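Moderator note: this is an archived Q&A kept for reference. The question asked for a predicted structure of one protein chain; the sequence and the answer are reproduced below.
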Amino acid sequence: MANTMNKEDIRTKNSNDKVMNDSNIEEPSIVKDEIDEDDVDITKLRTPIKVDLSAVYNFLGARTTQAWVDAAIANVPLIIQDHANCEKKAAGTAMNLIFRYEFSYDLQRKLAQLIREEMLHYEQVLGIMNDRGQAWKYLSAGRYAKGMLKHKRTYEPAAMVDVLIIGAFIEARSCERFAALAEVIDDERLAKYYRYLLKSESRHFEDYLALAQSLSEDDIDERVAFFKEVEAELISSPDNELRFHSGTPA
């Protein structure tokens, strides 16, 4: 029998086919732009509204003096340069440790994470320097780390325990100074970056302490108390050099 569909039937069929085809087409998903917490571009970083630093302040034996804050604000390029040095040294120290102490899975894993994070921060600070038109300049190391490391015990695992405790104080002091600078620095972009760093830096010192305790058969509280006094003295006493971890300007 011949097909006798009229024009109206054809239009209806085409319309129905279109509806059926459209119903099989998935709507494109809407992908929201996500802020990468580990982005090299610091303008894309999410800054925490507030970070509780009470544990950091309680851990440290002394607070940064106003004299240091004033000197740092007056010498921001130097502080940025030394900050870059500190991030690079932290990654380098962790890399050395990861080769020397291969027996501990927890230590290896945490050091690997730390290396990755410190190098990211180093790259971010380099970006800040570049954006500010600040050329890289050689800056000698201050007395801070050496002043603690000279008290490190010379036998294992005590030496490693001391290194980790010292690392805890360095991280805690870094966090405390980022917070102090973020409150008063007139460069809002830099202040925002320092506030961003508070989240990671505020937990690093506890990671170091946990690793130190895991390697020691004895309680580490006595060694922590010892280095707390040493670190506080280095921060509070007069210092002839201005650095990110230097003492009170002489």
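Archived answer notes: The first helix runs from residue 7 to 23.
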